[in-house]
Amino acid sequence: MMYKLPFFKLLFSLSLILLVSSVYAQQDSTTSKKKHKKVKEPPHKGSMYLSPVPVIGANPAFGFIYGAGASASWYLGDPKTTKISNALAGVAFTTKKQTIITLKSTVFGEDNGFILLGDWRYLNSSQPTWGLGTGPQSARLADNDFGFDDGSIEGNSEADMLEFQFFRFYETYLKRIGSSHFYAGIGAHLDLFSNFTDQLLNLDTIPKVITPFYAYNEQYGFAQDKSTLVGISLNGVFDTRDNVNNPYVGRYAMMNVKFNPKFLGSDQSSTQLWMEYREYFNLTENHNNIIALWAFANLTLAGDLPYMNLPAVGWDQYSKSGEPYSQGRFRGQNLMFGGLEFRKHLFATKKNPKFFGAIAYINATTASSKENIDLFQYIEPGYGVGLRFNISQKARTNIGIDYGWGSYGTTGFFLRLNENF
Question: Signal peptide span per the entry (predicted)?
């Protein structure tokens, strides 16, 4: 399936970003003149940096996306001993009649005494339901039986979509252990999917048109119209990054074990494991050339998960994994992802020494299906390039435009606030 973004949309998005950046620069210049070149106040406890931007983008699952977003960064303590906190909020609509409302946050307490990780979402949305695992069978949207050998239906129109409403509330609290970079804590997790409407499913034809979503629910005993997953988690984090918005140095590691017992409200009991690692390598002392590494494993240790809660690309906290593929394009009982980015500073202005840069990335995804596909049996590559515009020096807030290519003719255009990781 090929998705092509019309050139004028790409040009329009780029023009808007340049306009926003120009407005910020003009505001800084005007403010500076009014204050007669008053020295800017250095960051301190309570400093806040707000960066509102238009939300414009496109990908195969959502079509053309438009709305408004904001990045808020602040210090809960002395910046010398406290890392900057960040929250990303957005309200977006799409040409496929979807509504997406998100609030995602990483908050550091005073002197880095604790971390709060938040992921709140409301979606009135739709996505195609691909086959499980990576490999050729994952490109099939439907079949005339529970297999994936013949009769596939290609394309990705509104008629192929699984429509649904979704509410997520994830909040994790981690306490710093002594004066180290280690944190440990617990989390609460709620996923509610409702009003499923499987547009491609047709049980009245001969042969029947069966989707992966319908087949999975029949095989593993889940309802076809809704699903609920309620969990508690045990978490450990190691974090030496200098900034969560756009790290120049440091590393990050996280382990999360999530228990989803039926007595808390989950449709079925299950256990999940999340393991993640990130590291940032400086090639020059001025942070103008950085290689960034991101890898994670999302594994089902016990039980069965609802189809939409199975490990999938694009369903991480900030929904940034798996470019150039759309959210949920690869899904399975187990999934692993790894990626490299080269980040290069290209152009400075008098007011902003990090104003403009570019990135190039490459990644790989593998997912399993309990029935017939093992991890690493098929590996799906992704690669692409992007531009970066810095709109807040002190918070290191960037606007990013990425374009990428992958398997099966996939292309994707993404607009981001802050770095992908």
Answer: 1-25
